[in-house]
Amino acid sequence: MALLKLDKVTKHFGGLIAVNNVSLELEQGELSGLIGPNGAGKTTIFNLITGVYPTDSGSIFFMNQDITRKKPHETAALGIARTFQNIKLFGKLTVLDNVRVACHYRLKSSVFSAVFDLPKYAEEEKRMTDESLRLLEAVGLYKLRNEKASSLPYGHQRKLEIARALATRPKVLLLDEPAAGMNPEETLELMKFIKKIRDEFSLTILLIEHDMKVVMGICEKITVLDHGCVIARGSPSEIQKDPEVIKAYLGSGTYARS
Amino acid sequence: MYRKKSFWFTVFFVVIFFLFIQYAQTHFDAYIIRIMNVAAIYVILGVSLNLINGFTGQFSLGHAGFMAIGAYASALLYMSPELKVMNFFIKPLIWPLNQIQIPFFPALLIGGLLAACAGFLVGAPCMRVKGDYLAIVTYGFSEIIRVLFNNLQSITNGPLGLKGLPTYTNLWWSWGWAIFTIFFIKRLIDSSYGRALKAIRDNEEAAEAMGVNLFRHKTLAFVVGAFFAGIAGGLLGSLVMTIDPNAFNIMLTFQIVLIVLLGGLGSITGTVISGVLIAFLMEWLRIVETPMKIFGFTIPGISGMRMLIFSVILMIAVLFFRHGILGDREFSWESIFSIFKKRDSMEGE
């Protein structure tokens, strides 16, 4: 049984069909890619899974549970975390606080016990801090924990976004163009990093990426979208040979080199 | 270690402060005491509005409405039945309000709680609007309260207002509540809840994606902010001894927004400083409203000149000091300690 399943999902924006009858399955532990030309509906699919937009038709299942009508904070609590294409950090908060915010939904203490720092809250706060610091260590931002998030360099901001997503203790991680704006060296490091966190946190990862080196290099399965429709699905080598993909995505007859 | 040290420093200074308050209450003249009372009320209002506007990023203009609710609810509870009969000579006050009289403190609390309920009612639908539109909706709310209170003659005595209220408000009450407000809101924003509020301010979409329940946290900010606004309303009513619906108009909200903007959106320290400053300036600037003789010309006293000066101050602040007195920085003992530490280590070399 698939961990995350999209069943014939459709989404319109006015007259534009952003996502058309898309079905998609993610198996436990899989690292798969979602590719397609600009405007193919990739980010919209992320927004539908996390509940930012309601679907027009079709349904989404996560661990056999219907999450079609769930709100973003509910899907996050269930175990679906995401990063954003254009980084969306809490700029005025410190690096540590950015991660701690993502632990907040698990807080059981009331507002009053938080304000008066009762023992139960103090213990929970300490646990949140410890967990966040461990995550920062895992992504290599421990030393920068007291910096303002907006003052970090771009590559670190991407990593912080991933650390923040991990703090929600996800089962599925949705990465929206993690390699955007990175140089080849950073990209290589990122690929290793993604594989590492997948194994370390036993995650299922779905990533959107334009950098073919990343997609072909680390994804085990690739889904290709064009104009909101799935046009191909398979392993990287299958995708590279697929005539539909070549026509829609890679252009006139040249093969992508991985 | 530092935390413990700063805790005792805070306790020490709060004790010193209340000794000063005790001295002021018995030795200062009534005029200064009154300004100090107003300053405390401004501090409560500014800090509570800063929670909504500065820390949660929801620009609200509803504070006067919350104050009106707190002021009326508490006044109707602590006024004596005889006083109520004297006030309500056109239309009698409805039962059971005309019978009951309770002490000042519980009356204040009930006023605050009713304002908090109103805060919930405003905060909940405000989930659907953002930015300027939220400001319009909340402003609309406080106008609705004003119009409602003008017309609910059998409860609020309408535009006649309530007069001759007993003065319970003294420096102990006002500054006690001010210190409690500062403590409560400071602790709230430093807690996990506060981080969630600031996350909503910085990026609502990301906050929601990280599991922050927007509805719950936005209404939390409104409820807490409105509660303290209600308390401040109750204190103000008992201080000025007379309240009428039109006292809680947009000018009052504007004044609180001015305090928050001058102090710095997102700085409690700044709000406290600017709240006290504006309370004193409001009185000292009365000079400009008296008739003056400049270069042989006699200028008649124009009432309202003070507000003109405040408008100029606000414009200068918006143009040149966008972040107010302190921006989003806060006072902390740690920063004071570190100054001394640096000096010590320099002397040691």
Description of the structure:
Chain A has 258 residues and is an alpha/beta fold. Chain A has 2 domains: 1-79 and 171-258, Rossmann fold; 89-169, no CATH class. Chain A has helices at 42-50, 72-78, 95-101, 111-115, 119-139, 154-167, 184-200, 212-218, 236-241, 243-250; strands spanning 4-13, 16-26, 31-35, 57-62, 65-66, 80-82, 172-176, 204-208, 221-226, 229-234. In chain A, a hairpin with a 2-residue loop joins strand 4 (57-62) and strand 5. Chain A is globular, with a radius of gyration of 19 Å. The mean pLDDT of chain A is 90. Chain B has one domain: Orthogonal Bundle (ABC transporter involved in vitamin B12 uptake, BtuC). Helix content of chain B is 71%, strand content 2%. The mean pLDDT of chain B is 88. The interface between A and B is medium-sized, with 38 and 27 residues.
Treating each run of at least 4 consecutive H or I residues as one helix, how many helices of chain A?
10
Into how many domains do the coordinates of chain B divide? 1
Strand content of chain A: 15-25%
CATH topology value of chain B:
ABC transporter involved in vitamin B12 uptake, BtuC
The average pLDDT of chain B is 88
Number of extended strands of chain A: 10
